[in-house]
């Protein structure tokens, strides 16, 4: 594709070069991809490519021609496709001189002169924008745009302010109005600022009309008199349309006449056309390309895009934080002493809701500080704001790193006292946003305290009640923000794949977003689960298979080149080689999750079927984490007849099928037979996989979402990853019994030669890791049927797998072909799977992994520990000796802690290494004699060393609930018996799970 693009441009008409739109049609690519490829090849756009030749021709013509019209006609005669306006613009931009009668001034200089004139005329007019933090920094260009829009005669340029929720769009509009009052030397009543929230009337165009334009008597039932609308109220000033994306198409079209001609009619008035001289400022947090009509966008000449908080420098963010604290000090009417730890955390946490959320978080901190100040009866002059008052998401999202630590220390090096006698800079977030608290939140706290005190309640009870009310306010706010958002937070995916993978994928996403404008957020979640699976496969010596490699390399040129850059992050972070097949996968994901992608949409369907209420939960997790609505679920109650469940399963499969078949994930029993029956009855191709769990559901869904994936490919990957027999004839995997001896059966026609060779290879490979396995050789040519002999073995042993030259298709037993085992990588993968099954038998009893996580032998009471490193090394050393972890685990813990100290809001440390370095899962618990400094001035009293592997990873959810419960943590801290601590965790698990 590169060569074809170069050839097209080399042979193009130099006077009329191909535009990116024209090239996209010739190459069969999207315009955005053509632009990316062109930039990558360092090729200028069509305008610049012809500029040199065009300027030369215009210059020569200007020596003899005296008008732009004549020059334009001459250029057209020479073969140029060009307009008079374009010629005039080029003459202006390049400051060309000749015999022209027209007096053309460079556009930029003219604007500059206008600014200077206004500045001289209205001294101090720019001060109003100085109230915005960053006005001469990251927002400098935005402020200049805003000034230009207001200054444009006669009433200003219609303006669209865009940006994420909470970046300050409403405030920018308000400041533009204040600027207009100054430069036009008018009072507010003669230059009004009228706000209209489009969301309030998005579903009712008639009501929208009546509110905006007013109505005449009799226009509708209830219209008993004439009434002016908001447009009439805004005449001579500014009409601010907030959340303009919520206007339906009809609503946007209604505004056309007002924007174009300044004319409008009241609802019901067919005779009188009214005039309103208004400047329209609209604001939206959504993508204007997809949420606003093209015809509406064209009518708004000025677009101001405000940056996210994370795109602004730390100095500006610090100023914003301090200003918010000043505002709260004014409202509380008390000085505030803010500790540097609070300032650090607020400065560096990932504030996804931008300035609006930051403002809310500052309010939460101050509200909690005030509550503590009142209930403790403090006599201090200032309210101390410390880390205990921070919202939990601020602490959890804070991650200091080496590159920013020095910068943070430069900005925040001491505690700050905020007095109440200061001049407010008036920096505000978007007004009336979901992030705003009520103005009287602090008064509410005081009133509630007085009320409960009068009722005779104790201070600790009052604090608990008011805290709960405050938490509910916070939750309500968050619910509003997250309404209709079909995604988990990134912290949830982190609990599944680990922080290292998440950090790697975030860097990959940053690379992708720098080159492609519109990437669906779902790509993040798919990449996280996919990269995690890839790393595990490579480390386990499993081959990565991608049948579409050549096709992707040839047809997804842009995506493949981008994937090569992104995969470098994986190579660097994990020090492993990544094959081309994996690069092709990343390219496929990029292609599929680029917004507005026109790739094929047919995908493999996924249906999860289980006994009891399990399937819907798995489906919900898979759908939510991957941001889709793709997975369906069928749940069969234990007393339900199979035929009743079968009908529901059949309907689910038919709904899930889009032409590429359906993957059925089941747990056990009669559900394992549904796939074949559904295929015979409906013709929908199905593939059934047994022993489904949440991670399998995630992996299967991730693969099924790729348009290029098919059932055969998914079958191959799942079979290698889980050693599960998959196929149209699959019947699932039998449950294992820890009380039976485990075996592997090898089969060939004679029972000699091949079967024995396979047995020796398997035994040797497994025993090299200190495990033992019994291998039984069988032959196909025997008087007794093979099915009967296998049944006898299954009654006596745990039959883990069958290896042979011929597949005997035994339901519930994994099968591997002899030809695969004879290959080194195949033998290793098989042995890894068998060793894992042996581990399951040794460490997983009927109650699951959880009961074995907490043991007295790895609980360390009243230890004299001086430093964080000493605590980690002591626990790792002991757990290494006792067989929980390998020698590499300590390095993983220290590496993670150096990047980001891990502790909860209760100041309980939770250091952990990598899953692959865990031999058997366990949670080490240390209660040091004295609190230990865990970094950043945090002292912890309890340390949990989480040695969790893939089998135990899901257990972290209930462990986290326990360790974030203040009362439980206090109870653990006060214990002097390791047995009691084990009992607390095991008993609480039953409550939380």
From TrEMBL:
| Ranges of residues in domain Sigma-54 factor interaction | 132-367
PRD domain mapped to chain residues: 496-600
Which CDD domains is this protein grouped with?
A: AAA, PTS_IIA_fru
Keywords assigned = ATP-binding, DNA-binding, Nucleotide-binding, Transferase
Is Nucleotide-binding given among the entry's keywords? yes
Q: Which residues form a coiled coil?
A: none
Query: Where, by residue number, does the polypeptide cross the bilayer?
Result: none
Q: Which GO terms describe its biological process?
A: phosphoenolpyruvate-dependent sugar phosphotransferase system; regulation of DNA-templated transcription
This protein is called: Transcriptional regulator containing an AAA-type ATPase domain and a DNA-binding domain
Q: What is the source species?
A: Alkalibacter saccharofermentans DSM 14828
């Amino acid at each position: 594709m590169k060569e074809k693009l170069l050839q097209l441009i080399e042979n193009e008409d130099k006077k009329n070069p191909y535009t990116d739109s024209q090239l996209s049609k010739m190459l069969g690519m999207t315009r955005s991809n053509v632009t990316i490829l062109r930039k990558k090849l360092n090729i200028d756009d069509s305008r610049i490519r012809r500029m040199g030749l065009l300027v030369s021709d215009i210059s020569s013509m200007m020596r003899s021609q005296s008008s732009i019209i004549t020059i334009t006609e001459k250029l057209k005669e020479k073969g140029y496709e060009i307009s008079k306006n374009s010629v005039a613009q080029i003459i202006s931009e390049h400051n060309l001189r000749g015999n022209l009668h027209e007096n053309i001034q460079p556009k930029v200089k003219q604007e500059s002169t206008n600014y200077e004139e206004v500045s001289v005329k209205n001294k101090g007019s720019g001060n109003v924008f100085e109230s915005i933090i960053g006005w001469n920094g990251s927002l400098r260009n935005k402020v200049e745009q805003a000034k230009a829009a207001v200054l444009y005669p006669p009433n200003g340029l219609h303006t669209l302010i865009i940006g994420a929720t909470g970046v300050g769009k409403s405030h920018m509009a308000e400041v533009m109005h204040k600027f207009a009052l100054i430069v036009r030397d008018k009072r507010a009543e003669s230059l009004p600022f009228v706000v209209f929230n489009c969301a309030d009337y998005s579903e009712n165009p008639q009501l929208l009309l009546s509110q905006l334009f007013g109505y005449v008597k009799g226009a509708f039932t209830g219209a008993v008199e004439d009434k002016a609308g908001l447009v009439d109220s805004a005449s001579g000033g500014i009409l601010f349309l907030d959340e303009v994306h919520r206007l339906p198409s009809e609503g946007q079209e209604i505004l056309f006449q007002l924007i174009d001609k300044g004319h409008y009619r009241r609802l019901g008035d067919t005779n009188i056309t009214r005039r309103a001289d208004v400047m329209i400022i609209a604001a939206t947090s959504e993508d204007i390309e997809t949420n606003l009509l093209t015809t509406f966008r064209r009518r708004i000449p000025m677009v101001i895009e405000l940056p996210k908080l994370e795109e602004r420098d730390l100095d500006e963010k610090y100023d914003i934080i301090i200003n918010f604290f000043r505002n709260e000090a004014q409202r509380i009417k008390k000085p505030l002493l803010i500790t540097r730890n609070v300032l650090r955390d607020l400065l560096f946490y990932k504030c996804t809701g931008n300035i609006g959320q930051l403002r809310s978080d500052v309010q939460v901190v101050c509200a909690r500080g005030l509550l503590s100040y009142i209930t403790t009866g403090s006599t201090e002059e200032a309210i101390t704001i410390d880390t205990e008052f921070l919202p939990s998401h601020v602490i959890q999202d804070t991650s200091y790193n080496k590159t920013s630590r020095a910068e943070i220390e430069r900005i925040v090096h001491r505690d700050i006292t905020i007095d109440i006698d200061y001049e407010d800079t008036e920096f505000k977030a978007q007004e009336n946003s979901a992030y705003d608290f009520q103005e009287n939140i602090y008064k509410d706290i005081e009133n509630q305290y007085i009320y409960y005190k009068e009722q005779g309640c104790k201070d600790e009870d009052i604090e608990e009640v008011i805290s709960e009310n405050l938490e509910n306010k916070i939750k309500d706010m968050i619910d509003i923000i997250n309404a209709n958002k079909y995604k988990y937070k990134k912290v949830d995916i982190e609990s599944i794949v680990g922080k290292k993978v998440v950090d790697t994928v975030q860097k990959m996403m940053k690379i992708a977003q720098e080159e492609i404008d519109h990437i669906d957020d779902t790509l993040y979640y798919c990449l996280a689960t996919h990269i995690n699976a890839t790393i595990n496969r490579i480390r386990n010596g499993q081959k990565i298979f991608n049948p579409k490699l050549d096709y992707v390399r040839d047809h997804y040129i842009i995506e493949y080149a981008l994937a090569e850059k992104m995969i470098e992050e994986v190579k660097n972070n994990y020090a492993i080689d990544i094959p081309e097949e994996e690069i092709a996968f990343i390219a496929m994901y990029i292609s599929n999750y680029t917004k507005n992608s026109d790739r094929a949409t047919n995908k493999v369907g996924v249906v999860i079927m289980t006994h009891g209420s399990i399937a819907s939960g798995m489906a919900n997790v898979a759908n939510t984490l991957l941001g889709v609505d793709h997975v369906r679920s069928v749940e069969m109650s234990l007393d339900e007849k199979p035929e009743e469940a079968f009908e529901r399963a059949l309907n689910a499969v038919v709904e899930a099928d889009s032409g590429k078949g359906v993957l059925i994930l089941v747990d056990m029993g009669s559900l394992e037979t549904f796939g074949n029956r559904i295929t015979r009855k409906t013709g929908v191709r199905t593939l059934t996989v047994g022993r489904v769990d949440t991670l399998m559901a995630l992996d299967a869904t991730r693969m099924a979402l790729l348009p290029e994936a098919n059932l055969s490919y998914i079958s191959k990957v799942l079979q290698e990853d889980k050693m599960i027999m998959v196929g149209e004839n699959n019947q699932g995997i039998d449950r294992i019994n820890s009380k039976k001896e485990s075996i592997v059966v090898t089969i060939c026609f004679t029972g000699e030669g091949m079967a024995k060779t396979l047995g020796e290879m398997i035994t040797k490979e497994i025993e090299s890791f200190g495990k033992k396995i019994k291998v039984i050789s069988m032959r196909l040519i025997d008087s007794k049927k093979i099915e009967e002999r296998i049944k006898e073995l299954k009654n006596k042993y745990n039959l883990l797998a069958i290896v042979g030259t011929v597949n005997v298709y035994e339901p519930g037993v994994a099968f591997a072909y002899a030809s695969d085992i004879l290959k080194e990588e195949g033998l290793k993968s098989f042995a890894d799977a068998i060793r894992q099954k042996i581990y399951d038998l040794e460490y997983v009893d009927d109650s699951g992994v959880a009961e074995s996580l907490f043991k007295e032998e790895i609980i360390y009471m009243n230890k004299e520990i001086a430093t964080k490193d000493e605590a980690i090394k002591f626990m790792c050393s002991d757990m290494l000796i006792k067989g929980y972890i390998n020698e590499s685990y300590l390095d993983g813990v220290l590496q993670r802690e150096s990047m980001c100290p891990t502790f909860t809001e209760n100041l309980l440390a939770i250091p952990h290494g990598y899953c692959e370095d865990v031999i058997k899962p366990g949670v080490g618990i240390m209660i040091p004699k004295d609190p230990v400094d865990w970094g950043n001035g945090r002292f912890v009293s309890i340390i949990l060393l989480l040695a969790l592997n893939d089998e135990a990873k899901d257990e972290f959810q209930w462990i986290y609930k326990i360790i974030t419960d203040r009362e439980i943590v206090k109870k653990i801290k006060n214990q002097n018996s390791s047995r009691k601590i084990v009992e607390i965790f095991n008993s609480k698990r039953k409550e939380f799970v």
